[in-house]
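Researcher: I'm preparing a figure for a lab meeting and need a structural model of a single chain. I don't have an experimental structure, so a prediction will have to do for now. The sequence is pasted below. Please return the structure as tokens so I can convert it later.
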Amino acid sequence: MNFLNWFIKWRFWLGIAALAGAIGVNITSGFWPALALYLIGIIFIFTHFFVGPLRLIQDYLESGDFEGAEKVLNSIWFPGLLYKPIQSVYYTLKGNLAMMKQDFDSAEKHMKKSLDLGSPMKEAEGANKLQLGMMALQKGKMKEGESMIRQALKAGIPDKESHALAYLQMCQIMVQKREFRAAKDFFRKAKALKPSSSQVVDQIKQIEKYISRMPG
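Model: Understood. Here is the structure written out token by token.
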């Protein structure tokens, strides 16, 4: 753990220690000698609640330690005090971890909260809307699912695998609506991205078996 991560992890308690030291100096030597410690303590505690420890999550996510990432999120006692863009990222991460646990109700709640706050990155907004669209489709809410996926495509989706998946979902929605020309168009767009993940490639192979026989 580098110094910055160590500092973020212990920043709140360092702030408490600085305030305790300031009070001690204030009692023995007066306010002015204690001023610097008071300021340090206040700044450390303020940034703990305003900025939070989200930077610590990166290492856990890169190593696949989702339990460790969840512990960092759970250490945020008052997410409502976080700076708004950081608060949005907090709820996005909560939603992603809930998705991994297949807790779709919690995932949907957190994703919607993130979108309401406004995503600091347009691509993150697109990814959130795609996930919400997928969850809506799983619940049989076709109209809502289509709307969210269209919004995701408009906002922009950061990686080509997810982008291709969005097009394939739109393709299947168009098939169900019997809008075959639109379905073929979305399928061509998905294939043109040349995705490599097995999940998306398998979907392309399955759809390819019947889409060429469609009218339009």
